[in-house]
Specification:
Length: 188
């Protein structure tokens, strides 16, 4: 699958190091108005795992259908915990685990792996183990195509492994801060 296809689907294609020339504002925006403004940054302190999951639930209810969410942060920063909240926010009841070894998990499919066309879906990708950008790109392309077909929310851990930065993506960085963590969300 070529990059032209991805570019036409969601505006992908910025190679690492390239820039659109647009600067993101440094100020934070209240979350209630955040989702309606492009290029804004929203930061929040999350005291514990429960707060991280609750934030994920809130994001799932506010992000547009079929959104792509890139999750950055060190090992143990809370990326999978946040995805568990996303799943709960979508009303999914399946246990969500880190796809570090499976690389990709699909949540919300009907028994047997079918898609009903009405239930919310979540595609969870973890690119940590893919050291070669080409392998990360290939997996991402396959999963992105499926997520687009389903209209699924797609959460990608370790997007730094990709050779490009998806332009239309929401970006969430998690970092340790004191006893909790700081989440900084940037809209596309």
């Amino acid at each position: 699958m070529g990059w032209k296809y991805l570019q036409s689907r969601r505006g992908f294609g910025l190679a690492c190091g390239e820039s659109t020339g647009m600067q993101r504002p440094e100020a934070t925006t209240p979350l209630s108005s955040f989702y309606q403004t492009s290029g804004q940054t929203h930061g929040v302190y999350l005291a514990n795992a429960e707060a991280t999951q609750a934030y994920g639930q809130q994001l799932a209810q506010q992000l547009p259908p079929g959104a792509l969410l890139l999750l950055k942060g060190d090992l143990g920063a809370g990326k999978t915990c946040l995805v568990q909240g996303l799943a709960a926010g979508l009303g999914l009841t399946e246990p969500v685990t880190s796809p570090t070894f499976a690389l990709a998990q699909h949540y919300g499919l009907a028994p047997g792996g079918g898609f009903s066309g009405t239930d919310p879906l979540l595609v969870h990708l973890d690119l940590y183990r893919l050291e070669q950008a080409a392998a990360a790109d290939d997996l991402f392309c396959q999963e992105e195509e499926q997520a687009l077909a389903w209209g699924a929310l797609m959460a990608v851990e370790w997007p730094e492994r990709l050779s490009f930065v998806p332009e239309g993506a929401w970006q969430l960085s998690l970092s340790e801060e004191g006893e909790g963590r700081r989440a900084v969300l940037v809209s596309p």
